[in-house]
Write a structure and sequence with these properties.
With about 80 residues, this protein is α+β, with helices and mostly antiparallel strands. Helices cover about 30% and strands about 10% of the residues. The chain has three helices and three strands, in the order E-H-H-E-E-H. The termini are far apart.
């Protein structure tokens, strides 16, 4: 029996790099940095110099964002927290 890797097998993505996070949520990579700084996205996990965001943590963070027309907790009236790409 040989150990080979089946490159056609679908493997679930558990973590994403910064550019993949940006692409997944439809913003720029710089906006990902701002969203992390503002607390709208979690900080990445780090292994040596590699930074990885856990998909599950991104989903959880995004689920807590306010729906359109609703005010976020601690948000001043009329303040727009939305990001543009």
């Amino acid at each position: 029996m040989t150990n080979t890797v089946d490159l056609n097998r679908n493997v679930p993505r558990l973590g994403l790099n910064r550019l993949e996070v940006a692409q997944a949520i439809g913003v720029s990579a710089n906006t990902v940095d701002v969203m992390v700084d503002e607390g709208f996205l979690p900080k990445p996990r780090k292994w040596h110099s590699r930074k990885v965001w856990l998909v599950a943590e991104i989903v959880t963070a995004m689920a807590s964002w306010p729906e359109e027309g609703m005010q976020a907790a601690g948000e001043a009236d009329g303040e727009d927290w939305s990001m543009s790409a």
